[in-house]
Amino acid sequence: MPHSRLMRLIAALLACSLALAASGWAQQAPQPPQPSVEDEQVQPRFVWGILLNFALSKLGSYVWNVFAGWLENRLTGGLGDTTDHVISSLANSAFGQIRPRSSSALAARGADVVVGDPQSPLRISGGRENFQGVHMAMLVVQPDGKTASFRPVSAGFVTGERFKLRVVSTFDGELAVENINPRGERRQIFPPRGADIVAIPAGKEVILPLARDDYFQFTGATGREQLVINFADPRAVGSQASPNRVNRQDVKYGSNFVQEVAPNTYPFIAQPVELQHSAR
Predict the structure, then answer these.
(1) 56, 121 in Cβ contact below 8 A?
(2) How far is residue 110's CA from residue 266's CA, in Å, rounded to a whole number?
(3) Which residues of the chain have pLDDT under 50?
(4) Backbone Cα Rg of the chain
């Protein structure tokens, strides 16, 4: 083979080899990290009236995280069990007001309450959340009136204990407390007049009974008794009351509730609290 032809062949093979190597290096070169779909969805959003860095999630349990973030700045003392701060501010219940019922919402019965995570994730559509939430806690006050402890509603209470009820909600609601005595008789006990309700504005901590020195206390009976805490959007009447089950999460500072609401439906949460009378 003539020398010049051999040199051209070697040059062609070398060029081909370099091209293949360069292609291989390009394929193996590290790529910059790509933002995940989840990262792209993290953005400030208004959730229950406040601006949160809200990440869309496929997990139904994520609603608890968002609700706790919303709730923290609305509870006296935050999410900690700082009942001394609550005791010192029991008089600050001006946000709750006893009013005549504005609707027949509380005349109905709420959906079932179950402990556990919601089946659907939290979503924002058209500027409206698909869940609404309520926090309730029992504030059991000791006889000295200076010490107290929070309980979730599932813990119940026993004969003679004095307690107040703390409520914070993501929506404007109406509240009434009923009693079912050991004979099965049911009646509204707070507000005392059956035609009244407590109007609670969204995002405001309210401690009931409203008067500083008033408490719930039950004595002098035996057997099983219940309080039923009814809390509803005034528009939750008939077909406009959400039929979806209510999910409850019990934590050290009380109990959290969320209910999924479709467009043109509104939340209604009814939670029984057990009272165990001691035989004397």
Answers:
(1) yes
(2) 11
(3) 3, 6-7, 9-40, 280
(4) 29
d(CA 207, CA 219) in angstroms, rounded, equals: 22
| CA pair distance 235, 12, nearest whole angstrom | 82
* Structure tokens, 215: 């408490």
Please provide the size of the chain in residues.
280
Cα(190)–Cα(234) distance, integer angstroms: 17
For residue 33, the tally of other CB atoms under 10 A from its CB is 7
Residue 167 near residue 136, CB atoms below 8 Å: yes
pLDDT the model gives residue 259? 96
Interval 175-208: pLDDT, tens? 999 988 888 888 999 999 989 999 999 999 998 9
CB 156, CB 255: distance < 8 Å: no
The answer to whether residues 94 and 200 touch, using CB atoms and an 8 Å cutoff, is no
Q: In Å, how far from its chain's centre is CA 271? A: 14
Whether the model pTM is above 0.70: yes
Listed residue (200, 140, 198) closest to 165, CA to CA:
140
**Annotated domain spans of the chain:** 37-277
Q: Enter the tokens of residue 24.
A: 């291989």
What is residue 169's three-state secondary structure? strand
Are 266 and 232 in contact by the 8 Å Cβ rule? The answer is yes
CA distance 67 to 186: 32
**Nearest Cα residue to 170 out of 63, 29, 21, 86:** 63
* CA-wise closest residue to 198 among 273, 268, 57, 93: 93
Largest separation between any pair of C-alpha atoms in the chain: 120
Q: Which helix (H) or strand (E) holds 53?
A: strand 50-54
Distance CA 199, CA 167 (A): 11
Assigned token pair, 43: 């953005």
